[in-house]
Amino acid sequence: MKRTVYTLITGASSGIGKSIAWYCGSLGMNLVLVSLPDEGLEKVAREIAEKHQVKTAFFETDLSQLDSPKAVFDWSQLEHFDVNILINNAGVAGASVFETSDVNYIDDRILLNIRALVMLSRFYLPILRTHEKSYILNVGSLAAFWPIPFKSLYSSSKAFVLYFSKSIRSELKGTGVSVSVLCPNGVRTNGTTNVRINSHGKVGRLTELSAGAVAKAGIDGMLKRKFLIIPGRINWLVLVFGKILPPVIQQKLLVREFMKEVLATRN
Ligand SMILES: NC(=O)c1ccc[n+]([C@@H]2O[C@H](COP(=O)([O-])OP(=O)(O)OC[C@H]3O[C@@H](n4cnc5c(N)ncnc54)[C@H](OP(=O)(O)O)[C@@H]3O)[C@@H](O)[C@H]2O)c1
Fold it and tell me: For residue 266, is pLDDT > 80?
């Protein structure tokens, strides 16, 4: 008997996650959407179901709470949602001086960007293993490739996502589970990302992409079972150019560039 399979997407109520949900819906995938409460997730689920004639369900929770990833898993099992694609998209960015960073700011980046992604991967892997072909797509960032001053928590959390994804991809070689990591540069998804992208002037404007373009690149790459997905040729150039610079110059440039972000986003 053919199984009715679902794609689970975290952070699907807005930004890149919402675009991923719409793109997956357009490909005929049934969806399980997860996001914070009271942010319009039900509407997103209903509209995608109507437009693309797919099954959708939603679960509202704060994934930075310790018991939340398990609650999502238990609920989806209870509802018999047979997940064959897990997309860990929910994440929080931000720039701050570490020494004066708020405890909640620090916790959010560790508990959401790292812990929730790890726990959901752990809980769903046994289910993913039962499919002939299945996928995990973790949303990282181009910031994963450098230890970025004033984005110490964010860039380190995304470096974790990159390394974690690569490690488990190797562990799962020979199984049907493919693990990919999507590393976008700037995407204008909310007021803060707008300010951040603008703070980088011409470079910010030249390298930014729309959430739709990032979602398409991510899902197409994932389905081709690629590991590293960096949307936009220019962002590959940023990566290569940024990596060949001597480390001392890299750090000087990063301090200069990201100090602008802290100043622009300071309340
Ligand atoms: N935008 C960029 O420039 C950029 C660049 C590189 C990488 N990324 C990565 O792409 C991913 C999506 O970013 P985005 O810019 O699309 O962000 P966004 O517009 O702020 O959307 C984030 C999504 O995650 C949800 N979310 C936030 N905190 C949550 C929590 N504690 N529990 C459950 N859901 C939560 C949000 O729900 P609500 O709508 O309910 O708040 C929203 O659906 C993140 O991992 C980010 O690091 C973004």
Answer: no
**CB 221 less than 6 A from any atom of ligand 1:** no
User: So what's the architecture of 5-265 in CATH?
Assistant: 3-Layer(aba) Sandwich (3.40)
Ligand 1 centroid, distance to 245 Cα (angstroms): 30
Instruction: State residue 198's pLDDT score.
Output: 92
- Atom of ligand 1 at shortest distance to CA of 62? 32
Summarize pLDDT for 42-57 with one digit per residue, the tens. 999 999 999 999 999 9
> Is residue 267 over pLDDT 90?
no
| Mean pLDDT confidence for 206-218 | 97
Best CA proximity match to 218, nearest among 127, 135, 113, 144: 135
Residues 6+ apart with CB under 8 A from 70: 119, 123
Phi and psi at residue 60, to the nearest 5°: -100, 125
Mutate to test the pocket of ligand 1, among 187, 209, 261, 265 (most ligand atoms within 8 A of CB): 187
**How far is residue 196 CA from its own chain's centroid?**
18
Closest ligand 1 atom to residue 211 Cα is: 16
Instruction: For the chain, give the percent of residues with pLDDT over 90.
Output: 92
Give this prediction's pTM: 0.97
Ligand 1 atom at minimum distance from 154 CA? 47
Please say whether the beta carbons of 7 and 31 come within 8 A: yes
Q: Please give the distance, rounded to the nearest whole angstrom, from the Cα atom of residue 13 to the centre of ligand 1.
A: 9
Select from 19, 31, 34, 35 the residue to mutate for testing ligand 1; criterion: most ligand atoms less than 8 Å from CB. Answer: 35
Q: Whose CA is nearest to atom 42 of ligand 1?
A: 11
Average pLDDT, stretch 164-182? 98
CA pair distance 102, 193, nearest whole angstrom: 20
